[in-house]
Write a structure and sequence with these properties.
- This protein is an alpha/beta fold and 267 residues long.
- It has helices at residues 36-52, 96-107, 142-154, 187-190, 227-235, 246-249; strands at residues 12-16, 56-60, 76-79, 82-85, 111-113, 125-127, 132-136, 159-163, 175-177, 182-185, 199-202, 214-216, 219-223, 239-243, 260-262.
- The protein has a 3-stranded mixed beta sheet, covered by helices on one side. Strands 3-4-5 form a 3-stranded mixed beta sheet, with helices on both faces. Strands 6-7-8 form a 3-stranded mixed beta sheet, with helices on one face.
- The longest helix has 17 residues, at 36-52.
- It starts with 11 loop residues before the first strand and ends in a 5-residue tail after the last strand.
- It binds citrulline.
- Citrulline binds next to loops.
Amino acid sequence: MTSRPAVYQFNAAIVREPARSVVNGLRADDRGNPTYEGVKAEHAAYIAAMRAAGVEVTVLPALENFPDSIFVEDPALVFPEGAILLRPGAETRVKETVEIAPVLKSMFGTVLDLPTPGFADGGDVLTTPKSVMIGLSARTDRAGAEGLISSLDRLGRKGEMVQTPEGVLHFKSDCSLLDSETVLSTKRLARSGVFKGFREMLIPEGEEAAANALRVNEVVMVGADYPRTIEMLDKAGYEVVPLKTTEICKIDAGLSCMSLRWHRQAD
Ligand code: CIR
């Protein structure tokens, strides 16, 4: 039996160009629209960082009818052994799944549909070496999480339902995996005890949005606007790649949201 690559080892990723309509992306609090040019620049730097980290990136064309479609992480989940098409919990995003389905079918031998009923967003899913954690949130309901657990089971993965803190968009808005044993988490999420058995690094007060960092191979991508988090990770020995997220942050996004990542196995 071949062993699985570490959950942060990726050699393939899918991203989608931002549409001009991205300025109208969903947000919980209005802090003004992001600019299209700003989002595009942040997205381009993200793709470059992915490639520099050793990932082959497939760039899909923009979808004007879907302002949030740049956040390809939400309508699907991908693993070396197959993909799962999800049902995003925001009405304006549900059909993003239809758009990404043919792409995944051309790249994966196994593509499963989330069973009905229920909703689940990829942003609520944290893949760890122990389990695939699914945070219940305003976007992912119990039925969706249960359906997802059964789909994960078909792929040979163990799903586990957990709770996203009240008022937080996605489970992964508040955490990310730094290595096989360590999570980066906001204090409010860590306080719930959800990361028992993991080493926890806690986000400095006031930099909560930095929790959606992204470990890719040897590097950890972190929002450039969060100097204390960057310093903490740097001191702990992680190779930090700061990336600007000022514009996408205005529409409640961070670094994991902009890609679907997996380890493609050699044929
Ligand atoms: C939304 O509200 O759906 C988008 N504006 C942000 C999605 C961020 N996605 C993610 O964290 N996975």
